[in-house]
Hints:
Elements: E1 3-6, E2 10-12, H1 16-24, H2 27-32, E3 41-43, E4 47-52, E5 55-65, E6 69-74, E7 81-89, E8 97-105, H3 109-134
Antiparallel strand pairs: 1-8, 2-8, 3-4, 4-5, 5-6, 6-7, 7-8
Amino acid sequence: MASEYKSKHGIVSKSPYELFMAFSDMSNFKRMLPPDKQDSVTADYDTLTATYNGMSMGVKVYQRVPYSRIELVDYGAPFGFYARFHFDPVSDRPGATDFYIELSADLNMVTKMFIGGKIQGVLDKIVDGLADASEGKMPEGFDPSQFGL
Length: 149
């Protein structure tokens, strides 16, 4: 049975169109990495694969619903997963997006013991990081212009 996770919602100071366009090209994520980490990642428009400590894991775009949702599936990962990135307009803040992530992962008992409890925190950090970056609060070494932000 799949484990289900849903991140917190975060308000991002970019339009759903801008976020969708930045997230829709998987090669953008490789460009976000520090140069010394890029060698372990391959990416094109639809797929991204990374190798870490000898383990390879990849994602592939399953569906793009223009300006509102991008769905990803595992692509050579050690376990099956399905993720949705949501980009909803904020009615009282034109040009802002309500961003959140839903994840369904087929984790065996051992994998769930090791990473299951950390997944929620990772999803929430992604949302917080994107919301902070859109407000000009950048982590060291992050250049938002690489993503059209």
